[in-house]
Write a structure and sequence with these properties.
The chain is an all-alpha fold. About 65% of the residues lie in helices and about 0% in strands. The chain contains 8 helices and no strands. About 20% of the residues are buried.
Length: about 160
């Protein structure tokens, strides 16, 4: 996939548009994850979702658009997981240990690796202009931990120095 110029601002989509766009995005994510960015083109998820080329161009106007959408999708999933009820707070060392134990015990962790890190590693070897989105993704993920640390220290009467 090669970079092309185009807007990065998502278009406002109707509910019907979203219902059509989501399967394309899901197919693109699976293809990128299983085959890699280099082996995935925009035609593959278009065909898998059964939409026309003009519909694809409506939802994903550039070659980068599906990749950017996959990045956003994966970041949202990772952040939702870490902000979910189970891991919403690392206010005690035991909570952090539970989070770490979950990853150590996750049966696919060694096969699949970090879903966000694997995506970034794959995309980083392309000429796509998505660096800013990747940096933002990791910044937002890091902030989940930083926010918990700050909240924990302030709850204990300490000032966070980081």
């Amino acid at each position: 996939m090669e970079a092309t110029t185009g807007t990065r601002v998502p278009r406002k989509l109707t509910d019907k548009d979203q219902a059509t766009r989501v399967p394309v995005l899901e197919h693109a994510a699976v293809l990128i994850y299983t085959k890699g960015v280099h082996a995935t083109n925009n035609e593959q998820p278009r065909r898998a979702a059964g939409i026309s080329g003009s519909q694809l161009n409506h939802y994903f106007p550039t070659k980068e658009s599906p990749v950017l959408a996959v990045i956003a999708r994966q970041v949202d999933r990772v952040l939702a997981f870490h902000r979910g009820e189970r891991f919403a707070s690392f206010d005690e060392l035991d909570a952090f240990r539970e989070w770490a134990d979950f990853y150590v015990g996750y049966e696919h962790a060694y096969q699949e690796g970090c879903s966000l890190g694997s995506l970034v590693s794959e995309i980083n070897t392309t000429d796509l202009d998505v660096h800013d989105e990747l940096v933002s993704a990791f910044d937002r993920w890091r902030d989940v931990f930083r926010d918990q640390k700050s909240r924990t220290l302030s709850d204990q009467g300490f000032r966070c120095l980081s």
